[in-house]
Specification:
Strand 1 (2-5) and strand 2 (8-11) form a beta hairpin. The longest helix has 27 residues, at 65-91. Strands 1-2 form a two-stranded antiparallel sheet. Helix 1 packs across helix 2 (36-56) and helix 7 (187-200) packs across helix 9. It has helices spanning 12-26, 36-56, 65-91, 100-116, 143-161, 166-176, 187-200, 212-223, 227-245, 253-261, 264-277, and strands at 2-5, 8-11. It starts with a strand and ends in a 9-residue tail after the last helix. By secondary structure, the protein is mostly helical.
């Protein structure tokens, strides 16, 4: 019999040996008895590390659980180091545009993660609520995987936003919602949507003020294109902007483009709904 965990069944005897060893390490060999909750945490810690190695090595089934665990634990440590380096890169030129959720999550909360994260006994816990929303949700991930992927998203966002004057972004956010500083919003998605609105109108891509005539022309765009057609055209405009207007470095272009494309289905629905209800100013402010 084995223990089934998501997509893999683990040999119960091997798994319990690993958990027993980790329990000894946790209690400094003073006891082999821990609470049920702690035993469950340590079991998850072992499985987390094994699966970290499985992902990297495409489920090498002939590897012993002991070896898988040891390799996986080293990979967790390496990913923590990579996340620290990525975070330090972000901090070098980080701008939060007055939005408190952005500041509190990335500037205030993230250092706490690196102080308190426990890769040995609780690697599956990423500790933070990550209130500032990025465009890619990692609901199936845990631990350092969540934090590392989250920081990658933040890097893509900051690289994009730094092509715009800080005041331009803050002015747009204020016109989008006067209380934007207190809202939980994704900052660059608002900028991207307005860039695309300007491109549809063939205006200066950094002109984020819209007249009544602009709103009429934007409404016409939605009326003349199906959902699929609109999304295809928006994707094409986004690619042109990233490649030709702000010239994202080629090494980052595919990842940044894929990142912001994630927002286009939601944007297209909001765009259409706002056009049909006569409230395009909710997306493209005056």
């Amino acid at each position: 019999m084995g223990i089934l965990h998501e997509h893999r069944e683990y040999d119960t005897a091997q798994l319990l040996i690993l958990v027993s060893k980790l329990t000894e390490a946790y209690t400094s060999k003073e006891s082999t008895s821990v609470t049920y909750e702690k035993a469950s945490q340590l079991m998850k810690a072992v499985i987390y590390c094994i699966e970290e190695q499985d992902i990297a090595d495409s489920l090498i089934k002939n590897e012993s659980l002991q070896k898988s665990y040891e390799l996986g634990y080293q990979m967790v440590l390496q990913k923590v180091q990579k996340a620290k380096e990525l975070y330090e890169w972000i901090l070098e030129d980080f701008t939060w545009y007055g939005n408190m959720a952005c500041k509190e999550t990335i500037l205030d909360g993230m250092p706490s993660f690196f102080i308190h994260y426990d890769p040995k006994f609780n690697p599956q816990d990423h500790l933070l609520t990550l209130d500032y929303p990025v465009l890619i949700k990692n609901n199936s991930h845990e631990g350092i995987d969540v934090i590392y992927e989250y920081l990658l998203c933040v890097r893509y966002e900051q690289m994009f936003l730094h092509f715009f004057p800080e005041q331009t972004v803050e002015d747009l956010l204020y016109r989008y919602h006067h209380d934007y500083k207190e809202l939980i919003i994704n900052i660059p998605s608002i900028v991207v949507r307005n860039v695309l609105g300007s491109m549809i109108l063939k205006k200066d891509q950094f002109d984020f003020r819209y007249t009544r005539e602009d709103h009429t022309r934007l409404m016409y765009f939605i009326e003349m294109n199906t959902q699929v057609e609109a999304e295809t055209k928006l994707t094409s405009l986004l690619h042109v902007f990233l490649k030709d207007f702000i010239k994202i470095p080629l090494e980052f272009l595919p990842d940044i483009q894929r990142y912001f494309i994630k927002d286009l289905p939601d944007f297209q629905v909001l765009f259409r709904t706002a056009a049909e209800s006569g409230h395009l100013d909710a997306i493209f402010p005056n």
